[in-house]
Each structure stands twice: as structure tokens, then as C-alpha cells.
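Reply to dn_fold:

You asked what the input looked like. This is it:
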Amino acid sequence: MKRPLVYNVMKSNGDGRRKILKTEYNDTESPPPLNGINSPSSTNNNDSKKMKLSVLPPASKVVHIRNIPSDVTETEIVHLGIPFGRVNNVLVLKGKNQAFLELNDEAAGIAMVSYFTNCAAQLRGRSVYVQYSTHSELKTDSSHSNANSAAQAALAAAQTLTNYSYIGGSSDTQGGPNTVLRVIVEQMIFPVTLDVLFQIFSRVGKVLRIVTFTKSGFFQALIQYPDVVMAQAAKLSLDNQNIYNGCCTLRIEYSKLISLNVRYNNDKSRDYTNPNLPSGESFLEPFLNVQPFSNGLAANFPLGLSLNGGFLGGIQQGFTGGSPFSSQTQIGGGNRGIGITPGFIPGSVLLVSNLDEELVSPDGLFTLFGVYGDVTRVKILFNKKDSALVQMKEPSQAQLAMSFLDRLPLYSKQIRVAISKHGAVQMPKEGQPDTGLTKDYQNSPLHRFKKPDSKNYQNIYPPSATLHLSNIPNTVLDDEITDAFKVNGFQMKGFKFFPAKERKMALLQLSSIEEAAEALIKMHNHQLRENSHLRVSFSKSTL
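and this is what came back:
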């Protein structure tokens, strides 16, 4: 049963004594007292009449949360309480910008209020205030928000999570609860970067340091929070969520490290407590054998976009026009989540180095990098022919190509791809030597992403040993395609049409990713019939 809030309105007598003017009762919670006293202004101009609150709510397992955003979800409210134990009930009063959580016992309530007294809680970038409620328990009926499916789902998910792991409880994760999280991004179809992760994880609490790197073919990060509670909340809130719709899944576990030692502030590592760290050479082009991704904690680091929005039970992005490169989502409840907004986006020109200068060509780079975006210009450097500049139509396409093609084995070398300091590739001026090293492809008919709703956006995959072949006329036989690859020096391990009856597409497997990349460069746009040319891309499937 709910207890009314009781407080005494005091008046100073001018002689050092105070007397009670009246006692007021309120069905809603009062603002949290400041150092035990709240001093609202008097309704008149008499400065000697100062009203003060003399009664504070006692400790309770029901916690009152004020100043919540009007579009906050039940899931976000519940996540504030998860690190402190089981959450039994939730009530969100969006019209009053208030919410209530009932925890399992009074000790959990004390822990939550004590923690957020010293460390301000945030929801969607907005500071919220946590205090004890005057309710001894939280009882709601069908008129309240916990009767809806969202609240019930939030409570069910919270109970599952807290049964698995909570502060002070057991965990079978790699390192056990601490302040450093290890984040692995699976199915990374679109770029995920340090800035992306910062925007997502800072919604839970203050992020101290981030280090990004690539290991075992996966983009990963180490993220440090000030304390275990924030790290626990981030893990429970964000683990197994998708950054983009259907891909870029976050797998989060505790790191064995107890702290991060960051040496450089750049797009690969960042210490937010020390903005004066040097940037290292992350953005420098590797003309002096500089490895562009070897800073921070000496790991192999990729990428850079910027996100803005709140973390939700499901983090999803809706693509406008079918393209992930020019997208905007709205922040809201349910399955909506993070939206991309303008922010840190490097340029659209890539520096590609460690190429085989005897075999590389502008057309070959156009075809390879065109798998991940529309290439507008390519320049092989005149005085350093194992390096080239590749300009993509949009910066995000450049990042996507960099994330998939950096360290790709090609022509017995491992190519390196980094964002260039150049804003654009310049065509040679009249009279300058070039010998065909620079080409403009802006009007090429071979661009894969010219149409905003192109299905190619949904079929972008990392380099693999299996190629996807399309645009095959139904009169073409198996041997005609396989013989074409053999004539060009490629040995196949498997081939099949699909669907079997239509025979418009096929999968062709080669011995390695390197051979598949070389075959893609050579065989894409191969003429099969007078008006039919083969389309080749990397496949996620195997034979």
C-alpha cells in the first residue's frame, strides 16, 4: 500500500527559532533533497519566510527516478536497476517524467541509490535523479504502463539476465566482472569504429578509454568504465544487440585486463581522461614503412563513423532508400534505436599500398574496390607504383572498403588500405606524364550502387574463397563458365547453379581468398553473350 509523502513547511521567526506552518501530503514524490534540505521560494517577497522540507523518505526497495526523457522505454528504466539485483516491477509515468523500480529487497535499493548519488545516471544523454520512493512496494493495475507488453517483456528479460549474472553473483564470462569489457563485432557488414562504440557505450555511463583492434578476423574493442556497476550495466544492456538491422552484432564479455594503458588519441585508441596524448601516426600514409594500424596498445586497428542516439533493448537502423551509406533513423521505443548523424567521417580517398606494381592496374583496383562502393577515380602513384589512391563516391563507402580489404592477400602480397590525407584524386594536368596511371570512372556503367534501392546493398560480404556469379543467360552451360575461369588460370574446387531450375546465378569456389580476389578482378564483366556480361562478387556461402 502506498504511503503519502509527508513534509513540514517551516517558517523562521527571526529569533533563531522555527515553527511549523503546515504539514502537506502529496501522492507524488518530491524532488531529491539537497544535503537533506530543499528550499523552495516563498509565494511572497518576504525574504525572511523560507520554507524547508524536514522529512526525508526512508530507505526502500522501491526507487523513484525523476527527470526521465518523455520517450524513454521500460527497458531502459529496468536496465538502470539490473546491476543491483532482480527487478520485480516497473512503472513509467511519461507524462510526469517519472519512473519507479521495485527491486528484490531494501539492500538492493540502498545500493542503487547510494551508487547513483555519487555517479549521476543518464538516459538518452539526459541526467536523471535516483532516490528512495515513499512506497514500500509497487502495485500497479491495468491503467499503468506495466500492463503493456513492453513492460512485461522488459521485466522478463531483466529476470533472465539477473538469474544469469549480477553484481556479487557468479559469472562464466572470460574475465569475471570488472571495469574493462571486451567487445567483438560479428557479421560486420557495415563499418563499426571507435566513435561508433563510444556513442553507444557512453549511453550507459562515462567511458574512460577505448582501444580497437582486429583479431582472428573480427573487429574488437576494449572499453573501460570507471567502475564495475557501469560495466555490468553495459554488458547486460548491449550484449547480443545489433548496431545495424540484422548485422554488426555486439558480443560482450569481461576482459582479463583490469585497466587500459592508452598511448595515442586517434581513430584506433582514445583516452577520454587525457586529451593531451599525441595522435601517433595513425593518419599518416605509409610511405616510410609506417604501419597505419599499429598504434594504441600495439594491436591491429581498423575504422570511423559517428552515431547519435540511445541504447535500447534492440539497437537497429533503418536504411533510407535501401542504402546504409546515407541513412537516418529516429530514436524511439521498441525496436527502434540508434540513428546515424553527421560526425567524425574521414575522407572518401583511400591510400592502397604494398601492391604488385607489375600486375596492378587502375581497372583492377576499380573492380576490386567497386565491390564495396562506387569508385570514381583511381591513380597509381607515378613515383611509387606499388601504391595507389582510390576515390570512392562517399566517405562511408571508403570506410567499408577499408574494413574489408585492408590486409587482403593479392598477387602474393598483403595489401594495406588506409584513409588518405588527400580530399580527392586529381586528374593529371595537360602536359604532365601519366601513361594511363590515372583514370576517371564517374560515368562508368559498371558501378554496382548507382540505384539507391539496389539489391547489391544487401549482399555485401567480406572477401572469401567462394564467388557469387550472376547475370548468367539461361542458355549458358556449366562448362562454358568453368572453362572461362580455367583459360584465365584459375583452378576451381566447386561449381553449382542456383536456383537449379532457373540457372541465372551460380557459386564458384576457388582454393583461397587470394585466388578468389584475383578471379573477381579478372572475370567481373566477362562477356558471356553479345549483350550479357558476368557479374562477380564475394559470397557468404561455401560449397
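The longest strand covers residues 18-26.
Hope that clears it up.
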